Amino acid sequence: MHLKPVIAMLFFTASMSLLSQVAPAAKEGGWPFVVGAAFSDFSTDMFSKHMQGPTVWADWNPNRGPSFLRGFGVEAEGRDLDSGQPQGQQLRQVTAGGGPIYTWRYSRNFHPYGKFLFDYGAMDHIKDPRLPSSYTADKWVIYACGGGAEYRAWRKVWIRADYEYQFWKVELFPSNGFLNPQGFSVGVSYDFSHPRPR
Predict the structure, then answer these.
(1) How far apart are alpha carbons 95 and 122 in whole angstroms?
(2) Is there a contact between 155 and 146 (Cβ–Cβ < 8 Å)?
(3) Stretch 159-185: mean pLDDT
(4) Inter-CA distances, 9 with 3, 4, 13, 21, 67, Å
(5) Which in 12, 103, 180, 197 has the greatest CB count within 10 A?
(6) What distance in Å separates the CA atoms of residue 107 and residue 116, rounded to the nearest whole number?
(7) What domains does the chain contain, in order, with CATH numbers?
């Protein structure tokens, strides 16, 4: 008869130890958005030249829903490459669009990610004698895949390093029908949603 109260007391103390933390280690909340800006250096896949310019982005990362969807979000991105033009050429590449992004919450301060974007791309350049006389600008729907990592620098401020590879369907240039600009961006972002340590 004395064994039952002892077993009951053991279960009671075990359950109390599971509830001993009264304050969470981190607080999840706020708006599920990230906004950022970066400096980009890209190979344009034209004239064998790199060009530079600003990049901006905004990510929507819902922090609620089924567990298997955690980490998935949507990114909107814009880039304007108009610095470092090839000698004797007037070239500019502009892209804007968006698509899905997956962020792996590897640790509290380091987040690798991958993305696939559907962009609207525009290219301006001076007249080339090999092309029709009026051909100095064109616009396409392009595709881009890439990835990178974010590192927490201070509270909700993150440093981002990004790589992107683009597919431009341009029938007038290379024999395979594609231009493939690619390059790196390094910048900073502010995360409105990541939990803050308490």
Answers:
(1) 6
(2) no
(3) 82
(4) 10, 9, 6, 20, 36
(5) 103
(6) 23
(7) 37-192 (2.40.160.20)
